[in-house]
């Protein structure tokens, strides 16, 4: 059993146990999460890479990268703030090209090697 299947099963047990005490929106949210985890539990390793390579998650990844840069701009040392401002646009551009040129499988392997 994989982690996603375990999550779906756990959430289903919570829903079955607590449904009568839950608000409609909470039930709906839980049901959507269960459905998602069931779908993800059927993903092969290659499906994971195909999903990422589809571009579906590009804006999310870019958002994390920009937030990381902004956190340096907001609360870093003076040197970190200056570097973040200089690198912000360059990193955005580099991410755009890497997402176009580097497959997700290679990116994951690069991360694991470093």
What does the model show?
By secondary structure, this protein is mostly helical. It has six helices and no strands. It has helices at residues 3-18, 24-41, 45-53, 58-75, 78-101, 104-113. Helix 1 (3-18) packs antiparallel against helix 2 (24-41). It is extended, with a radius of gyration of 19 Å. The protein starts with a helix and ends with a helix.
> Given the structure, what is the number of helices?
6
pLDDT averaged residue by residue? 94
Number of strands: 0
Through-space gap between termini: 29 Å
The portion of residues forming beta strands comes to under 5%
Q: Rg, please?
A: 19 Å
Keywords summarizing the entry:
114 residues, mainly alpha, 0% strand, extended
Topology diagram in text:
Layout: H1 3-18, H2 24-41, H3 45-53, H4 58-75, H5 78-101, H6 104-113
Helix pairs in contact: 1-2, 4-5
């Amino acid at each position: 059993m994989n982690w996603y299947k375990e999550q779906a099963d756990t959430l289903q047990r919570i829903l079955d146990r607590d449904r009568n005490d839950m608000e409609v929106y909470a039930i709906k949210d839980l049901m959507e999460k269960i459905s998602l985890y069931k779908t993800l539990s059927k993903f092969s390793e290659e499906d994971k890479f195909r999903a990422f390579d589809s571009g579906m998650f590009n804006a999310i990844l870019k958002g994390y990268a920009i937030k990381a840069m902004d956190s340096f701009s907001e609360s870093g040392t003076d040197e970190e703030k200056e570097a973040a401002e200089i690198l912000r646009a360059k990193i955005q551009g580099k991410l755009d090209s890497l997402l176009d040129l580097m497959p997700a499988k290679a990116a994951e392997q690069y991360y694991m090697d470093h």
